[in-house]
What we know:
By secondary structure, the chain is mainly alpha-helical. Helices cover 54% and strands 6% of the residues. Helix 4 packs antiparallel against helix 6. About 10% of the residues have low confidence.
Amino acid sequence: xxxxxxxxxxxxxxxxxxxxxxxxxxxxxxxxxxxxxxxxxxxxxxxxxxxxxxxxxxxxxxxxxxxxxxxxxxxxxxxxxxxxxxxxxxxxxxxxxxxxxxxxxxxxxxxxxxxxxxxxxxxxxxxxxxxxxxx
Length: 135
């Protein structure tokens, strides 16, 4: 397997492709491994699965809010769980690595934050902010 835009074979040279940033090996940043999620990480996959479950919940139960449904402990719990999850998701999305168009892996926190602010942040802020104003 050869990443696009590079001239080395990861399997021959035993280079950890996940440690490559912009075609060069990532600089050693001790705290980076604790806060930056790699796109192929198990933790990121688990987060995405939880997101899918909560999006499915929202798709099913948000339309039902237009009807007079009695408040139940489950609905109250889920409303708070989804609200808290999507709030934390803003931070998680801000620190999630991604694969750039040239095939390199971007893990630098400043670049991750700037990309998130330019793409999904405003929509996430409006949706989550509206959710917090609901009660």
